[in-house]
Structures are given as C-alpha cells and as structure tokens.
Amino acid sequence: MEELEFKHVSVLLQECLEGLNIRPDGIYVDGTAGGAGHSREIARRLTTGRLIALDKDPDAIQVAAQRLAPYPCAQVVQSDFCGMCQVLDQLGIPTIDGVLLDLGVSSFQLDTPERGFSYQHDAPLDMRMSKTGLSAYDVVNGYEFGELCRVFREYGEEKFTPAIAKRIIKTRENHPIQTTGELAELIKQSIPARARREGGHPAKRVFQAIRIEVNGELSSLSVFLEQVFDRLNPGGRMAIITFHSLEDRMVKQRFASLCRGCTCPPDFPVCVCGNKPQGKLINRKPIEASKEELEANPRSKSAKLRVLEKL
User: Fold this and answer.
1) Amino acid 2: pLDDT
2) Burial of 184 from C-beta contacts in 10 A (0-12 / 13-18 / 19+)
3) How far lies 31's CA from each of 36, 75, 88, 142, 235, in Å?
4) Count of other CB atoms within 10 angstroms of residue 62
5) If you placed Cys at 122, which of 8, 181, 190, 252 could pair as Cys (CB 3.0 to 4.6 Å)?
6) Which of the residues in the chain have pLDDT under 50?
7) What is the pLDDT of residue 8?
8) For domain 120-216, which architecture applies?
9) Cβ distance 12 to 305 under 8 Å?
10) What is this structure's pTM?
11) Fold of domain 13-108+218-310
C-alpha cells in the first residue's frame, strides 16, 4: 500500500526521549502517534519492551502502522488518548513505564487543505481529527450566539468574540458558511483594523477555539490527566507537549497537585493529613525549543514540554 504523504516534524524529539528515560525492557505509550516520529525513536530504543502507539486520526494510523512495521515491539491502535486505560485493559497491560502526549494539530492535518484545519487554504469547514462526529461546519452553522461566544472566549481567548459571533449569525441567515476561507474573511471583517495588524492572523484564535470544540481536546486531556498517572510504575514518567496556555495550565496544575505532599494549614506543628507527594517534576520550568529547532521548525515556537516522574 502506498504511504500517505504525511509530513510532521517531531517537536522536542531529543528532549522527549531524555525525559522519558527509556528502558530497553519497558512498556511505553505514545498517545498521539501522528507521523510516528516520536514513536519510531522510542521503538528503536526497546529490546524486550513494548510500545503502544495511539492516534484518533485514521490517516495517522495508516502511516504509523507502515512506519512502525519494522519494529516488532510496536503496536498501533486507533483511539483517542483519553481512552488509553481501556486500550491497556484490552491488551492486558496493567501498568506502563512511560507515556508521551504531543498535543495540538499535526503539520499533516494543517497542510492537507481538505481536512479544513487551516485558514491558509480555502477548504470545506471540517477540522475533525477522527474524521467522524461533530464538524467545524456544524459548530459555525448550528451553534446559537451564546454557544459561539462560549467557545471563542473559553478556547480562543478571543477579545472580539461578540462581534465575530454576531457576524456569523447574520451571515448564515442568508446562506450557510461553507469554507475556511469564508469564515476567515468574516472574522477579519469583525475585527478593528488596528487589531488586525497585531499578533498574527486575525482568524488564528477562533480557528483554534473551533478545533478544540470539535475534537473535545480539553475534555480528553482532563480525562487523561485524571486516569493515566495511576497506570505508571514507580519511576515511570509522563511527558506532555502543549501548544497553548489552556492545555499548559491544565498540565501544570495537575502535575503540581501530584507533587504536593502535606495539605495541613501552615500553622499546624505536625502533619495530620498524611498526604505524601506522588510524583516529582523532572524540570522545574517547561522545556522549550532550542534556537536551532526554532529555525528548522517554526511551528515549535509555542511548544512546552513538562515531565513528571512517579515516586
């Protein structure tokens, strides 16, 4: 079978491999396999170990299966990373030694116009990573004013939310909004000229917000953070790359709560809660792309890697 043209430069690759502290006999999960860049490097370092590579995108699964075929230790499964515990149960794997998430949208998804992720190409409004369920078209043409405002505010932190939502509602009274180009133009017209000249493409935040809503990205991350730490072996590590402040905040807060020990008030002479830290941060601050990586791959600019080890 011919391999899909799946280009995706793995962000913070060396930093992830170091962060995971891979043991040749360990069991690892890549929750966002994409073009299998991270997965392939993990698989190369295993001897008697196992790698489970997950992705919800059927195109990514096809490519990952081909690229990981030379590694008998690797197994590819189509699943959202929030279903990781169910996948492990189905495979009879009670605990793991490391897990990696590379969140956000892949270069392949952005650069394939017909997937409808990018405001750089005019294409049908889609944005579904799994190619099933709620689409960007459904959100833009079906959500009421209040729902649109919630999505743009919460997930895009867009300050011109009411104006954009109003224009969308007014436009679709005459005809449905069909394409990414049409939506990007509407957004541009809703934003004052001065603001259009600052801070990148005017549609960037709204497109991010719609994509997060369509793919349930923050709810998936919330489920993952709640469930998967318990499946790590002592000394096992969790490495997560985020690309915007909403995801990073969730990861930072969850990691902080797992590293927190005693929760007694500071004036108590002795601890009575008995809470002990469950994890430790491998780096106090998130790891960001080096100057060399930024030059080679500008999309790594907003990437932040946080690594936690289970005690």
Assistant:
1) 47
2) buried
3) 11, 12, 12, 31, 19
4) 17
5) 181
6) 1-3
7) 60
8) Orthogonal Bundle (1.10)
9) yes
10) 0.93
11) Rossmann fold (3.40.50)
